[in-house]
Amino acid sequence: MLVPLFFLGSVVAFPLLRRQMIHRHRMELLREQAARDPVDRAALSGPLPEPAAELALRLPEPHRLYALALLCRLQDALAGEHAAPLDVRNRFLVTQARHDYLPATLRAYLDLTPAARARIAARGQSAEALLREQLEQISAGVSDALRLDHTAADRLLTQGHFLQDRFFQERFEQQSAVSGQTPGG
């Protein structure tokens, strides 16, 4: 009586245990992947930003092609379609350029108001020239990262922080000008 009972128990329990082991293995793989590809959980909890491709499609023609080519290059580098595998530092840099620097630069250009364009023109520059310069800086930094040049990668990270600070300040000034407040108070 015990042998048939153990046999029946093993027939029923084995698939359940196997399914549980497969599930645990998948969860471990997901944890490892999440550890390799750090994602800002706070950014995911808020509204998702527009994808860089959609932003690039809204650019004027010469910049649209350049931004889309840069986006493809970043995506290929992250997908591992590069000659040399990226180390952790350069993978982080390329990820930052893909998910933060490029979209922030495109969004800042697309969000320029006529008043902001007039201020840029008063400085003797054009918004299009500034956009081209920023896209070229991101592209040069990514090229250096793909060559595994850590000094150049550090320069791109610094440039990214500068771009974020600069555009955050310009947006703050624009919002303050609209609301009639001064940036200092």
Secondary structure: elements and pairs:
Elements lengths: L1 H35 L4 H5 L6 H6 L3 H18 L9 H23 L3 H9 L4 H20 L3 H30 L6
Keywords:
185 residues; mainly alpha; elongated
Give an overview in words.
- This protein is mainly alpha-helical and 185 residues long.
- 79% of the residues lie in helices and 0% in strands.
- The protein contains 8 helices and no strands.
- It has helices at residues 2-36, 41-45, 52-57, 61-78, 88-110, 114-122, 127-146, 150-179.
- The radius of gyration is 24 Å and the shape is elongated.
- Overall spatial form: elongated
Q: Tally the helices: what do you get?
A: 8
Tell me the total number of β-strands.
0
- Note the beta-strand portion: under 5%
Radius of gyration over C-alpha positions, nearest whole angstrom: 24 Å
User: What would you call the quaternary organization?
Assistant: single chain
- Which sequence of SSEs, written as H and E, runs from N to C? HHHHHHHH
- Head-to-tail CA distance between termini: 85 Å
Mean pLDDT: 76
Classification by helices and strands: mainly alpha
Helical coverage, percent range: over 70%
Main sheet characteristics: none
Residue windows where pLDDT falls under 50 for at least 5 positions? 41-46
Briefly, what is this?
The protein has 185 residues and is mainly alpha-helical. The chain has eight helices and no strands.
